[in-house]
Amino acid sequence: MNNILNLKNKTVLVTGASDGVGESVCKLISNLGARVIMVARREEKLRDIYKMLDGDGHACYSFDLSNIDEIELLVKKIVSENGKLDGIVHCAGVAVARPLRQMKYQVIHELMLVNFYSYFELVRVFSKKCNNNGSGSIVVMSSVSARSGDKAQSAYAASKAAIEGSVNVLAKELADKNIRINAITAGMIKTRMFENFLNRYDENSIEQLYNKQYLGVIDKENIAYAVAYLLSDASKFITGTGLVIDGGYLT
Amino acid sequence: MSEKEKLALLEDMFELDEGDLSADTVLDELDEWDSMSKLSLIVLMSDEFEKKLTGDTIMTFKTVGDILNYMG
Questions:
Q1: Which residues of B touch A98 (CB under 8 A)?
Q2: Is the ipTM of this complex over 0.90?
Q3: Domain limits of chain A?
Q4: Cβ within 8 Å of residue A79, ≥6 positions away
Q5: Residue A38 three-state SS
Q6: What SS3 state is found at A141?
Q7: Which chain A residues are closer than 8 Å to B61 by Cβ?
Q8: Which of B13, B44, B55 is facing A202, going by the closest CB pair?
Q9: B58 vs chain A: nearest CA distance in angstroms?
């Protein structure tokens, strides 16, 4: 039987590629045959992961996604150097834990730049005929916080809710272009964000997390599997949704 | 920053009145010393003192004076 998650001949742009889920996605989809275009801020880390990818034709671009106005130029450069794209995986994101009384507009704005505006701009640019191969799949990382966030996560939750709200509308707008778009609504994953959580909160909060997410903290690879599925033709009837991978958190 | 100014920052953070806190105030005796105020303290240290406070260090704080000392 053929591998149903075959990504051969697909060129996929991955943001947040130097760390966490993005890193796992790059490794997995390269193994499944994709050409991976890695985008992240830290060039050195990008180069390290680049060397670990399977197959040929990958590329990496050091770029700060909070420079929204330069995203279109970046994609143009990527397409001119690597050919048109078949997919985007937006893993770049920042988390901020701030109680309401210490929230500042500037903090929300900086978080939205990376978590939401950059994703939206990438989708807009990718959807142009000149940048995609006449079809495509977009996967964006969301969070259970979009639906049931904890105290002090209001800005982060809002950014993820903005993503999920946009996904089901954009799915309809992009259907005529044969482009699907989906979010992954993830629970707590074993990444740097989780380590920060452990450093920041007391034992009581950590115990509460384990009670809610009773299947345990999610391995990055298990998110990457879902990303590969959503990128592949195996999921061709799935669009406009948030695929929940939450270890039971929302139940 | 003077000790008075630092105390004022903490009183504001805890939503207490001026003069409610002193260096001798025992944190565990404050109703306001909960998980949200500990998180607020992390944010305050980052915003005002550019210090990265961790949960482990917070557990060593017994009095308001310990926090003032950490502020430096």
A1: 39, 43
A2: no
A3: 11-191+219-235
A4: A85, A130, A131
A5: strand
A6: strand
A7: none
A8: B55
A9: 9
Candidates B13, B28, B35, B49, partner chain A, best to mutate (most A CBs within 10 A): B35
> CB atoms < 10 A from the CB of A71, how many?
23
Phi, psi of B69 (to 5 degrees): -65, -40
Query: Which pLDDT tens digit goes with each residue over A68-110?
Result: 999 999 999 999 999 999 999 999 999 998 999 899 999 999 9
Q: Tokens standing for B42?
A: 């992390």
Chain B residues near residue A96 by CB distance under 8 angstroms: none
Among the listed residues A220, A195, A157, A159, the one whose alpha carbon sits nearest the alpha carbon of residue A14: A220
Q: What residue ranges define each of the domains in chain B, with the CATH number in brackets?
A: 3-71 (1.10.1200.10)
The answer to whether the Cβ–Cβ distance between A97 and B39 falls below 8 Å is yes
- Asked if A77 and A129 touch (Cβ cutoff 8 Å), the reply is no
Q: Which CATH class is domain A11-191+219-235?
A: alpha beta
